[in-house]
Amino acid sequence: MSINRRGFLGSAIAASLATGLNAQGLNAQDKPPGGAHASANPASDNPFGPAKRPIIISANNGVNYLDDAFAFLKSGGDTLDAALRVVKGPEDDPNDDTVGLGGLPNEEGVVELDACCMHGPTRRAGSVGGVRNIKNVSLVSKAVMEHTGHVMLVGEGAERFAVAVGFPRENLLTERSRKIWLLWKEYHSTDDWWGPGLADPQWKPPSPTTSPQSELWQQRIQRLEERAGQLGIEPEFRMAAVRRVLFPPSGTIHCSALNDKGEISGCTTTSGLAYKLPGRLGDSPIIGAGCYTDQDVGSAGATGSGEENIKVAGAHTIIENMRRGMSPLEAGMDALKRIARNYNNDMTKLNFIDMTYYILRKDGAYSGVSLWEGYSKQHLHKIAVHDGTRRSEATVPLFRGISNEFPPFPVAMPKELTKDSEYAK
Ligand code: ASP
Questions:
Q1: Separation of first and last alpha carbons in the chain
Q2: Of 250, 289, 370, 403, which residue is the least packed, with the fewest Cβ within 10 Å?
């Protein structure tokens, strides 16, 4: 179903004002015996379950890796090692193009990865940013924590360190990610030498500017799809590749793990924003933004707009909120409201921002909160949980409605490009 942006924005604002995120309602629902957390969203029938230990929470792309990590944790495995087992799954998966191997590269076609971790019991941290050629950067961040007197290494130094402690150098750019990047590069290269030149038999002069915008866009999309075919992208993935060119995707995985003794740790890993400027670091490697763990309080992590999360030091803000007595849900909502405040609550701009927090308190109470309900009606934000039962639960949104992709699409979106189409995500 395609959603008219103007109509949608109106209803999203109305819904969020009507919901009002009534703090009293939150308090009442939010502190049941044992620390269970219910949803702030009256329409949600998916309240967070009762607090239990041990427990692992993660971004939903970790859900398939929770069983193994939970068994490891239950059998006495370290909390950070359990969390790392979860995030290693997407790092190793070449088909997850937002983390580790197969992550979409920077604007120069080079995969650069970011990660950090915090070990609650020993109150230590490690972080790496902008790392090339090393797949399991979450494990490298742990190595920084264990094998150096530093907390953060970046770029070439981080790569050389990883090799020194035994990580193999490997090519992280899968053929599929390389082709998507090349399509993106050629699409954005109207004024340079990338893409087929004048001598190419298929070359056509640009359409006359008198064509209506929507027609120009149709032609552009058609050319992109054709070019995707020429670059060898398989037919069933071509439209998905076109979407990845027009709306650069992002993605990350965070995981926090708590054992029955109350020890807690967390980690976050990502390839960051597709086609980012070389050297760009998002929130994921920033201790206090993409991940923060305090053995006295709990652990939190983030996925979504890294630039926004850095500005509110999201994970640290959440932990400090809980230290002062807020529930996980209240603590997360407060961080989201700070992001909204940074834009003077301008809903037009906020609708292009996405942020999800995964929050675990030391007693086992947890919450998943997000700025919007989801990326589309088919892709609602979820938190993956394992406390003996593995499940995915809807996050509690600050605003009703779905977020918009960036950059804005200037004309009515063709059906096959909409977020609810089969090619999305
Ligand atoms: N937070 C990540 C970053 O900014 C991206 C994401 O989670 O989607 O690098």
A1: 15
A2: 250
Q: Which atom of ligand 1 is nearest to 276's Cα?
A: 9
Distance 241 CA to ligand 1 centre (A): 19
39 touches 396 (CB < 8 A): yes
Residues of the chain with pLDDT under 50: 1-47
Catalytic residue, candidates 79, 98, 174, 252:
252
Whether ligand 1 lies within 6 angstroms of the CB of 251 is answered as: yes
How many residues are present in the chain? 425
State whether the beta carbon of 269 lies less than 6 angstroms from ligand 1: no
Is 252 considered catalytic here? yes
41, 395, 404 from 348: Cα distances, Å: 22, 22, 10
Quote the pLDDT of residue 316.
Answer: 98
Domains and CATH numbers, the chain: 5-24+186-248+408-424 (no CATH), 42-173+250-397 (3.60.20.30)
106 CB within 6 A, ligand 1:
no
Q: What is the DSSP letter of 402?
A: B
pLDDT digits 0-9 by tens, 177-190: 999 999 999 988 77
Alpha helices in 76-212 (DSSP H): 79-92, 137-147, 155-164, 175-187
